[in-house]
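Key result, reporting period 2: structure in, sequence out.
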C-alpha cells in the first residue's frame, strides 16, 4: 500500500484569521433525511445478517423528506398536511429465492427514527410514505444476480470488498475550539442526552452558525418554539432572553477571556407582523421545508466551511463496499489515531477507483506538520493495522451507527 506523506505548511485552523462552522440540529430536515437513510440501511443490514448471515447489496442514500403544512401560534399548533417520505434507492429483494420485504423494512425504520428525533409527531398520521425503490434484478456491469443473489457465491465482497464507485473521502484531527463549540451548544443546552430534549416548549430544528474573526466570535442560532407549549408573547420573549443569557454564559466560559463573543437568536423575529419562530411540531419540515441526504452536516457532526471536506454523503450507503461509507469511516479513524500518535494536526485523504480492493486505496495521502522516517513508520503501521480489518469493516460501521442512535432496536 502506497501512502503519500505531505508536509502541510499552512497555519493551524485556530491560528488563521477566519473560521466558519455550521451545525444543523437533530430536527433539521437535512439531518432528519441523513438519519432516516442511516437507520434504513442499518435495519436492512441487520435483517439480512439475521436471516442470511450476509449484508446484501443496497444503497438508500437518496432519501428525501418533503414538507407538510402546519398552523401554529401561541397556545396551539397542528399539522394540516402530512410530511412526506420518499424512499429512494435500491435494495436486494431476495436471497436464495426468499423474498425480502424491503419497503416494509424501510417504512418501519423511518418511523422508529422519526418518532425519536421528533417526539411530537404521530408516525401513523403525520407521515405519508412513497415507495420509489428500484426493484430491477440486475446491473449490466455486474450480472443479473446483483440484487437477487441466489447464494453467497453471488456476493464476492464477502471475501474481498471492492469499490462500487470512484470517490474521495477526507477527514482531519483534532477539531478546533469552534468546531467543538458548534457541535456541543445544542447538545448541552437543549438535550439531556441525544434524542432526549430538556424543554417541552423548544423544538428540534435548531441551527448554529459560528464565525470567528481573529478573537471575535459571533454565534447565531435559530431555535424553534412549539406553539402548544408557548402560551404567550411574553413567555416567548422571556424564554428567548433566558436562553440567550444561558448560551452566552456557556460560550464565554468555554472560550475563555481571550475571546470576545456575541450571541444572536432568531434574528428573523418581527413582533410587529407576528413573524416569530413558532412551529406546531418543532421542525421546518412540517411547514414546507425539505430534507435531502448529503445536504446537512458532514459525518463529523458539523459543516466546516474553511476546512478540507468532501461532499460525498455516507448516509444510507452499504457498509461493506461503498467507498463513501467505508472510507468515510477510515479517514475519521485514521486521522484521529495518527494525530494522537504523532501529536500533530493531520489531514487524511483516501480515494478508490471503481473495482479496486478497498484495503488498498488508489490514492492515500496524509498531510502532517512534521515529517521524517519515524513519522512515516508510525503512519504506515497504524494504516496497515486499520485497513486489514476491511473484510469485517461493516461490523465496525454498524456498531458506530448503534452508538449514534441509542434507541435502535433489532428489526422485527
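The corresponding designed sequence is given below.
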Amino acid at each position: 500500500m502506497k501512502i503519500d506523506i505531505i508536509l502541510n505548511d499552512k497555519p493551524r485552523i485556530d491560528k488563521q484569521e477566519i473560521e466558519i462552522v455550521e451545525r444543523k440540529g437533530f430536527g433539521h430536515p437535512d439531518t432528519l433525511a441523513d438519519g432516516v437513510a442511516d437507520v434504513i440501511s442499518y435495519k436492512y443490514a441487520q435483517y439480512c445478517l439475521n436471516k442470511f448471515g450476509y449484508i446484501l447489496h443496497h444503497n438508500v442514500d437518496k432519501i428525501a423528506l418533503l414538507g407538510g403544512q402546519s398552523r401554529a401560534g401561541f397556545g396551539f399548533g397542528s399539522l394540516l398536511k402530512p410530511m412526506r417520505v420518499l424512499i429512494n434507492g435500491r435494495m436486494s429483494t431476495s436471497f436464495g429465492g426468499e423474498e425480502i420485504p424491503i419497503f416494509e423494512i424501510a417504512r418501519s425504520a423511518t418511523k422508529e427514527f422519526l418518532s425519536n428525533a421528533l417526539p411530537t409527531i404521530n408516525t401513523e398520521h403525520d407521515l405519508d410514505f412513497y415507495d420509489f425503490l428500484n426493484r430491477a434484478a440486475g446491473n449490466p456491469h455486474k450480472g443479473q444476480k446483483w440484487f437477487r443473489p441466489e447464494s453467497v457465491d453471488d456476493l464476492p465482497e464477502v471475501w474481498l470488498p471492492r469499490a462500487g464507485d470512484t470517490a474521495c473521502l477526507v477527514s482531519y484531527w483534532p477539531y478546533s475550539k469552534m468546531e467543538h463549540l458548534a457541535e456541543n451548544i445544542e447538545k448541552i443546552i437543549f438535550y439531556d442526552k441525544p434524542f432526549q430534549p430538556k424543554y417541552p416548549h423548544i423544538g428540534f430544528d435548531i441551527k448554529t452558525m459560528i464565525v470567528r474573526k481573529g478573537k471575535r466570535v459571533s454565534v447565531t442560532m435559530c431555535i424553534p418554539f412549539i406553539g402548544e407549549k408557548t402560551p404567550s408573547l411574553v413567555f416567548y420573549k422571556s424564554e428567548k432572553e433566558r436562553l440567550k443569557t444561558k448560551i452566552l454564559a456557556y460560550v464565554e466560559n468555554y472560550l475563555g477571556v481571550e475571546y470576545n463573543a456575541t450571541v444572536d437568536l432568531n434574528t428573523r423575529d418581527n413582533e410587529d407582523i407576528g413573524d416569530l419562530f413558532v412551529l406546531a411540531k418543532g421542525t421546518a419540515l412540517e411547514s414546507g421545508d425539505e430534507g435531502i441526504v448529503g445536504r446537512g452536516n458532514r459525518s463529523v457532526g458539523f459543516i466546516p466551511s474553511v476546512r478540507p471536506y468532501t461532499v460525498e454523503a455516507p448516509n444510507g450507503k452499504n457498509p461493506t463496499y461503498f467507498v463513501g461509507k467505508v472510507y468515510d469511516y477510515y479517514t475519521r479513524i485514521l486521522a484521529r489515531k495518527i494525530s494522537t500518535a504523532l501529536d500533530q494536526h493531520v489531514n487524511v485523504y483516501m480515494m478508490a477507483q471503481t473495482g479496486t480492493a478497498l484495503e488498498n486505496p488508489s490514492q492515500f495521502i496524509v498531510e502532517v506538520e512534521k515529517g521524517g522516517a519515524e513519522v512515516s513508520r508510525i503512519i504506515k503501521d497504524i494504516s496497515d493495522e486499520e485497513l486489514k480489518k476491511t473484510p469485517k469493516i461493516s461490523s465496525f460501521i454498524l456498531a458506530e451507527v448503534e452508538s449514534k442512535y441509542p434507541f435502535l432496536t433489532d428489526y422485527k
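DSSP finds seven helices and 22 strands in the chain. The longest helix spans residues 29-52. This case is discussed further under Risks and Mitigation.
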